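Help wanted!
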Amino acid sequence: MIKFLILVNKQGQTRLARYYEDRMDLTADERTSQEADIVRKCLMRGEQQCSFLEYKGYRIVYRRYASLFFIVGTDEDENELAILEFIHQLVETMDRYFESVCELDIMSQLDKAHFIVDEMVVNGCILETNKNLVLAPLAVLDKS
Amino acid sequence: MAGMSREFNELVRAIGDCKSKQEEDTIVAKEVVTLRSRVADREASSRMKELVMRMMYCEMLGHRVEFGYIHAVNMTQRQALGEKRMGYLAASLFLDGDSELLILLVNTIQRDLRSASPWDMCAALSAVTRLIGGETIPAVLAPVKDAARHPDHHVRKKAVMALQRFMHKSPDAVEEMGAILKRTLADREPSVMAAGLCGLVDEARKDPPAYANLVPSLVSILKQVVEHRLARDFDYHRTPAPWLQIRLLKLLATLGHANQRTSEEMYHVLREVMTRADCKTTIGFAIMFEAVKTVCAIYPQPQLLALAADNTSRFLTSENRNVKCIGIDALSAIVQVNAEYAAEHQMVVIDCLEDPDDTLKWKTLELLFRMTNSSNVVVVVERMAAFLAATKDHHLKQDLVAKMTSLAERYAPSNAWYMETMNLVLEKGGELMQEEVAHNLMRLVAEGAAESEEADDALRRYAAQSYLALLPKPHAPDLLIQVGAWTLGEYAYLLAPAVTPLQVVDVVCDVLERGGGGVRRGATQAFLLSALTKLMPLCTQGGTEVAQEMIEKQQSARDLRVQQRAREFAPLLHRPNLIHHVVVLDASCEDITVDERLPQLDGLVAAALRKGAQPYLSPRHRQPPPD
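Answered by r_m:
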């Protein structure tokens, strides 16, 4: 199960955060500190190292696109290579919608970015990966 | 950004430009103040969509905007799809299952679930999968079930996921969940079928036999997918619906596990999946990995296993770091079925252990754990010990402690090695261990290994020496101190004449004085106090004033166990002739027999009766008290 999906830039600033479990034990501030902490750990890893790490009982899979890290935290049940490629599919889908996505796009259209993520991951499961189907509801929204 | 106010664009720019967390905090804090006044002014209603989005920003960056939640909830009632969706999105980020505002939201959700517009329904269903649970399920269950049969596939897909959410929150929430999920398997839309599979994975794990009859359908679906019978837009870089393949493989693994008949129904398609998986792409390897796991999970077929093992080699020889890393996981799966497969990859495994990449090292340790036997346990545990000393991550430490303990208990080549290893684990990870482990260790020392008395004493001497060295260390965990204190109390005498009892008493006093410790502190102090009491009678040359003072002081200790021991020991210290009866050397394994009639008190009772005391009446014979 996917426990969280976050986009954090290399300075540790969160650009999008979706959690798929109740985290009652963390305050909003603690959550953002944790997000920055995870990115720091990703940054400490070199090019030669794999895109996976362990963090506080979560399996982390991450991919970097320019200044932005796409980070997914899962339990041990998930297929890490599949998550790695899913991140890429998410980015390709965002690319299509925003026409070559960049950090600023996500910031100025945070709602749209969320809508894309929420079509693709539901209940911590990868649900929809067909780009046309992911973006169809957004097309309806933009027309209205 | 079109349609947004200058304020919004400035906010985005400011957040984007800021260079530090403090700067960001200042900007967001100011924005929260601004929003408070904006939501109250006249223009608020027409600008609410943007205001809600700005609130989302604040929450995402760590600042709560409770005053804004009601506005998000109210926005869901608007007709315009954009505003409705923004309202639901914000509500799903702001609220949790306990929120009182949820009741308001449920009303809107109920309305939208009956809307003529499938997009309104979808918006509501997305919110349902994020917010509905427990008490709110009944309010929406019926319309959601209806939505699972809606003509629009977007609606059906989301409704099925909503039902899965209900089952997560409350295992009996949806009575006919099994039937509904089976129906979705036959849905003409692949996405709806995929949604059903998510729920099926959960339900099948609870009761595999109940879903075994689905295997032929699942096999057929998987076959169609790998043979490219889905529309092209389900492809990812020419691989057909990889995540769907992977979910099907997971489900098959559950249904085929320990079930020969169902496993036989899947061997053919598993072979096909593995053959078609494109090992020039990462996604191909992802599918291959899942297939290998499935082959290993189900009833074994030798040729299929051999194929899986062969394919695992391709992982391990790949240039791609990620693929190689997962190759170790694949090997872990294979060795659980047949340890011999690991042998041919020994060199690769050893290289991975030396690799600077912690993740790779970690996964290799996991592999080694599964491959350990009595001939390699010493080497494996050594590696784990190095990792344990180096890691600060609490979860990793806990995992290592459990693994090392398990391996030591199962494969220890000698008692001395077992003790040395357990001491190391106690020292580096004692705060994470179960008490049983400590008890096992103490029992080993007490009972010996049923070898010669000399060998047993040698082990005890070794134990006493180790703990004498370990106890004084600054951050010794509680369990370590407990085992150490007990061992020294019982067996420090074996260290004479090189180490006198008084020297040991001094060490124990220091540890007692030092304090600290966590939840187990009271028990630890009790152990230390008991040790002192056993050791002090051995100090025939005196010098125990400090220790005596300590015991006397502990008579007013906060922990009752400590207090009790201190109060029992203190008077004994002044009666040297009695103490040797209470604190007997090397008698920890002897049974204490107690005559429950306490004949030694008969004289006392007779004397009291003679003086006129009332004789004892059992409860049956006593007069009832006056009402």
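OP: Thanks! One thing I noticed: The two ends of chain A are 34 Å apart (CA to CA).
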